[in-house]
Amino acid sequence: MKAILNLIWLIFGGFWLFLGYMVAGLLLCITVIGIPFGLAAFRIGLYALWPFGQTVVDRRDAGAASCLGNVLWLVLAGWWLALGHILTGIALCVTIIGIPLGVANFKLIPVSLLPLGKEIVPSDRPFATR
After folding, report:
1. Contact 47, 115 (CB under 8 A)
2. Rounded Cα gap, residues 120 and 103, in angstroms
3. What pTM did the predictor assign?
4. Is residue 123 within 8 Å of residue 53, measured between CB atoms?
5. Main-chain dihedrals φ then ψ at residue 56, nearest 5 degrees
6. What is the three-class DSSP state of 57?
7. Burial, 87: exposed, middle or buried (Cβ in 10 Å; 0-12, 13-18, 19+)?
8. d(Cα 73, Cα 84) in Å, to the nearest integer?
9. DSSP assignment of 101-127, as one string?
10. DSSP code of residue 95
11. Alpha-carbon distance 42 to 11, whole Å?
């Protein structure tokens, strides 16, 4: 079932979302200060490519720097990304077929809002660590 939902997601918008996050990640990696944010954008992009069967967990080794980075991300980009995922999720939930895709968009909200100090893991291992 995950494979079918991921394929439908990929065809109906997931690929473009992935490309958008990848371009943003490349632009953020231009400067040394932007590299952590670029890596976070790459992580979100890969999660946006195949959201079904994956979940977001907090990293235990995330420190004060990721907290400070999350505040900066939230102010500059996070709330815009979260708002976009909310609006897209609501629009997708209008039809019965689009409800799982809307739920996938809602799953992207927490990681797009505060991406630093997060890790994407398979859903069957939500407490897995490196």
Report:
1. no
2. 17
3. 0.82
4. yes
5. -105, 130
6. strand
7. exposed
8. 15
9. HHHHHHHHHHHHHS-TTEEEEETT-TT
10. S
11. 20
Give the residue carrying structure tokens 């980075």: 69
Digit-coded pLDDT (tens) for 73-97: 899 888 998 998 999 999 989 999 8
Phi, psi of 13 (to 5 degrees): 130, -20
Mean pLDDT of all residues in 90-106:
91
- Contacts of the segment 100-106: beta carbons below 8 A, 24+ positions apart: 100/5, 100/8, 100/52, 101/5, 101/8, 101/9, 101/12, 101/13, 104/5, 104/9, 104/51, 104/52
Which residue matches tokens 């004060």?
64
